[in-house]
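WARN  no MSA supplied for this record, continuing single-sequence
INFO  ligand: 5-amino-5-deoxy-1-O-phosphono-D-mannitol
INFO  echoing inputs
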Amino acid sequence: MKKIICMCGIVAVTGYKKALPLLINGLEKLEYRGYDSAGIAVINPDTKNIICNKAEGKLTNLLNNISNKHIHGTVGIGHTRWATHGKPEVKNAHPHIDSSGKVAVVQNGIIENYQELKDKLEKEGIRFNSDTDTEVIPHLIQKELLALNKLNLEKNGSTLLVALRNVISDLEGSYALAVLWADAPDSLVVARKQAPLIIGLGEGEFICASDTPAIANFTKIILPLEDEEIALLTPLGIEIYDSNNERQYRNPIHLHVSEQVIDKKDYKHYMLKEIYDQPDTAKYWIEKFLFKDSKTGQYQIDYPFDTEFFESIERIEIVACGTSKHAAMVGSFLLEQFSGIPTNVFYASEFRYSPPPLLPNTLTIGVTQSGETADTIAAINMEIKRRSSMSDEKYKPNLVAITNRMESSIGRQISNIIDIGAGVEIGVAATKTFFAQLLSFYGLAIKFAQIKGTQNNEIINQLISELTKLPPLIEELLEKHNKTSEKLAHDFFNIKDVIFLGRGINYPIALEGALKLKEISYIHAAGYPAGEMKHGPIALLDKKVPVISIATPGVVFDKVISNAQEAKARDSYLIGIAPECKGTEIFDYLMMIPETNEWISPLLAIVPLQLLSYHIAAHRGLDVDQPRNLAKSVTVE
Ligand code: M6R
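INFO  complex generated
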């Protein structure tokens, strides 16, 4: 089947205020979710027509389109799109409108059976204007509305709700939807299935969006829609129904403070600001999760699960994608080597289709900063399902999620949550959330080592003491390397390939360094375990291919230095992420990090790598915060 995949951000408003500024403000905050095209539709209160405007490319193009137009309705929907299939053209931009021009729809997600539905509609004489999956929805709704009209149902929001409910029963896939109907001009109907949708409650008005930043300027009180719920919103109130058509009543929740702050300060890009947030990320973790037991004087980790939970665990499986997977790999190293628990890390997208055989007393950890990554959520759900069906208690699911977004799908679904508390991250390239995920794993590793007795108190205290020193250390690294990496970027911004090497606990840092560089600078970069070079990748090396090697004193230091020598012998320019010590004089350029306990070296080594990637991309004049083809949360498989 030809798939059109769209992640996107949606926003929808009803109330007494002009809809357009609220829609635009919301879309600006959601642009990180996709920026291939943008569009809005508002009901004109005088003519009861839908006014729709769309533009290819970034939101600014849409703003230029509508700058001279008077769009003054109070009910509207908006969309910012990310597509991997089908050109990002105006015709594919949302909102999509039915042939009568009365129904407008924005969607986030994918309708998997759209082709079948489209074929059927086309046979009935409906003409399609786009290549998207979404366009079937307004046509299907209009068809339902005509059928309901024959039953003499009133033209109001309740009828639109019935029509949408009937339509979604035919849809396969995942979606968050917002729908307008010109004949019910103060109503908005929204629905979700496996894609996020949050309702913000104002006074006599409501704003729905894919994510909280789009709501934060408007209200601090929110009501996240649960999976497979559908809701009717008018200025008079909200009605929410579950998939059995039962009316739902529940209390709203307050937005987490960190969900509200999106401020670039004086930084040129969010990414740089977020790299600079990392000392605060470390402070947050230390203050929130580390405490000293007054009786023993011993530091403890304050994670919200009881000791028995940790005691029963014999092995760990971690599912994650992208940068979160790299954090999980460092976590796995710590959990095995420090805490002695056998641990495996899986790409969530692979785990879903080739899960390992079930083993007893297993902890499954899902790591996702956004809490919305479709593959990670699906992998966790699959694990819940297959383990829940086992009769033996030992096989039952034990779950922990590590996320930055407590209001997200994963945050609401799983009760054992580690909130990494990094604050909203806008740059598509994850930086401070990676750092915060790493810290969460240090906490888990310490907790397991204490409970299982795999390390003595002295070693545990030493590690904790090193962790408490992180904030000033990271500040120093930022101070030192912002300028050095800018200079290096000047020399290297035109390179074509870069190799990143690391071993042991720093192998995942080599992978993360390479991912950071390629995703924002579009320079090919690959990370390898340094010892693997001679088994193939070394063939790539010559003077045009610089090698960045993470060499921190510890078990494999001498080996990493030897591997770097091998690269130097092939004329590669060698950049070292290492302390100034015996052995590191081999590097042509040293991005110095302090000599510390090897366990915490990943937390230091990542900082110069983030800065270097940032400056190379900035020097190339690229859109650092919104790199091409990417989006912040990948809500489709
Ligand atoms: O929200 P998640 O942590 O689940 O996101 C996973 C990946 O999509 C994400 O880390 C992606 O690789 C970033 N662009 C990396 O910078």
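The chain has three domains: 9-249, 261-468, 479-637.
INFO  checksum written, moving to next record
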